[in-house]
């Protein structure tokens, strides 16, 4: 690649409007990630473990100097119904949102989505007491049958 093409390719925001055809090996699980199968021209996380790298300050600008591992910490659903992954940088703490790719590991996506249910911010054995403290009846409904 000549110097002029390289300068254009790495200009601020280049990847925001241009497809990225680069393959990469995941820094977390080592899997090779290729553009085919992503359903998008902008693969930015591993299809297997959903990890990413902190390379952008704004999507596509490649301006971040951090380079830390972006771990998947949650998911959210856009108005369109499309899922997006919430990533947090393990080095600096920056949060970002990235749309899910067509070939993302569905079991990993579900594990990330369900993580808060498996580790609630309160002791589950005190749910009746906590509900009563909030003005509820404080009792779980009894199944009648």
Automatic annotation (TrEMBL):
Residues 22-110 form the RNHCP domain. It comes from the Bacteria. This is RNHCP domain-containing protein. It comes from Lapidilactobacillus achengensis.
